TrEMBL record:
It comes from the Bacteria. It is found in: Cytoplasm. This is Ribosome hibernation promoting factor. PANTHER family: 30S RIBOSOMAL PROTEIN (PTHR33231). CDD domains: RaiA (cd00552). GO terms for cellular component: cytosolic small ribosomal subunit. GO terms for biological process: negative regulation of translational elongation. Required for dimerization of active 70S ribosomes into 100S ribosomes in stationary phase; 100S ribosomes are translationally inactive and sometimes present during exponential growth. InterPro entries: HPF/YfiA_ribosome-assoc (IPR050574), HPF_long/plastid (IPR034694), RHF-like (IPR036567), RHF/RaiA (IPR003489), Ribosom_S30AE_C (IPR032528), Ribosom_S30AE_C_sf (IPR038416).
């Protein structure tokens, strides 16, 4: 069951907007297993040029769904977000099903992928390094393909994971040429 946390920046979240967002995003519940509880965090932003940005993040125990969309019409942006999230879920489930056919014990893979939020750093004008946000998370064992899939679903450029075979901490990252890189630690 989905709970909603809807927030507006430079826009009032009217009952009509709230009802529309909840109605559309609740369609995603059909993909979840019974008893799965999650909170959909929805940020609605309106900029000076009347452009709207809708961000939806649904952190679950073993997976985080995330999408954002800019559009001149907020309702259209919500529709596009739901389409994006459905594509993410279908793509993810297809890969999980393929992997479960490929090797034994992967049927529970959908429950084994860990929600990951990465530490972000920013460089300010004085060239000082200031950590502006710190997050902690557990590393779950997975292979490179699973880590790349999770990284892409989160919309990040890198992902830290424990390699299921070597039990080492590794990092996958997206290269500028669109391909992927792997950093293995000793």
């Amino acid at each position: 069951m989905l709970d909603f946390n809807i927030r507006g920046e430079n826009v009032e979240v009217t009952p009509a907007i709230r009802e529309y967002v909840e109605k559309k995003i609740q369609k995603l519940e059909r993909y979840f297993t019974e008893g799965a509880n999650a909170t959909a965090h929805v940020n609605l932003k309106v900029y000076n040029d009347k452009q709207t940005k809708v961000e939806v993040t649904i952190p679950m125990k073993n997976l985080t769904l995330r999408a954002e969309e800019r559009h001149s019409d907020m309702y259209a942006a919500v529709d596009l977000i739901v389409d994006k999230l459905e594509r993410q879920i279908r793509k993810y489930k297809t890969r999980v099903n393929r992997k479960s056919r490929e090797r034994e014990g992967v049927a529970a893979f959908f429950q084994s992928v860990e929600d990951s939020n990465n530490t972000q750093e920013s460089l300010d004008d004085d060239q000082d390094f200031n950590v502006v946000r710190t997050k902690q998370f557990d590393l779950k064992p997975m292979d490179q393909e699973e880590a790349i899939l999770q990284m892409n679903m989160l919309g990040h450029n890198f992902f830290i994971f424990t390699d299921a075979e070597s039990d080492g901490t590794n990092i996958v990252y997206k290269r500028k040429d669109g391909r992927y890189g792997l950093i293995e630690t000793n």
